[in-house]
What does this fold into?
Amino acid sequence: MEHLRPEARRIAELPKVERLGHLATDRWIGYSRARDALQRMNMLLSTQAGRVRPQNLLIVGPSNNGKSTIAEKLQRQHPRRCSQERDRNIFPVLSIQMLPNATVPRFHAQLLDGLGAPVGHFQRGDTLSAITLNLMRACEVGLLVIDELHNLLCGSSSRQREILGLIRYLGNELRIPIVGIGTKDAWLALRLDDQLENRFQPFLLPRWANDAETGRLLASFETVIPLQECSGLGLPVLRKVIVERSEGLIGEMHELLLRATDHALTQGRERIEECDLMECSFQAPTYRRQMMDRELRS
Ligand SMILES: Nc1ncnc2c1ncn2[C@@H]1O[C@H](COP(=O)(O)OP(=O)(O)OP(=O)(O)O)[C@@H](O)[C@H]1O
Ligand SMILES: [Mg+2]
It folds into this structure.
């Protein structure tokens, strides 16, 4: 079982249900694009805080392609810590999600909530804004992550402009970099505010292609799939099938490999073969969408 990480070797000895349970849990697999994104965010945190015009980053990619997982990894690298001498919590990184029904007061409330402040006590309007700003300063927020930024487009255009104005204001006042995360609509949303648009450097997380980089990702996945024999997931034959069936999305790859592992074990095998990838219970995203469309029409 030398193809497995040490902890996966132990799990590969367990009964099927437990093995699948382990495989189903989300774990971090480093790949070069994710490492680049983390490095860019860490660079912003260490070099842009305190600058008059901090640089921002916009991580853009299709849904289910690892964007939020990268943000969570950053959060784990810079966890909240308790400052004894200042008697408060310090938040090097504060992460929130843009709500589809976001308004300026709700956005403030989310920031306060993220800092662990009792939101309900505060009034609306200017007071809320001042309290939020003061608290973010007091908690030494060094970088703000806004996930699901594309949700901004759900609101009316005046609401969108208000919130973009607030994001710009926060960056200017606190002098901290901001990382936006979302699908390509996030970029469209930012374009409504010229000043904001040119402060965000886009960073793309495209779909995975049938290439060597994907081969390396699949080889890394294989080190945590608790099967006793090596399947060669990153080699051209299986790689091609995996990329096609998953439609190049990392979340779909994870799901496909989980189901293929289940299928292989049910067949009494300790490695994934092409038939497992083709015959397991996984349904490709396009197929699922078509099924739903058909259901809804009938
Ligand atoms: N670095 C990683 N290592 C291992 N698995 C990963 C990694 N990144 C993503 N995944 C898998 O892909 C799934 C989807 O990832 P994630 O939620 O980060 O996607 P997303 O791009 O934020 O999607 P959405 O736009 O729908 O929010 C995860 O639940 C996990 O199974
Ligand atoms: Mg996400």
Summary: The two ends are 50 Å apart (CA to CA). The longest helix spans residues 157-174.
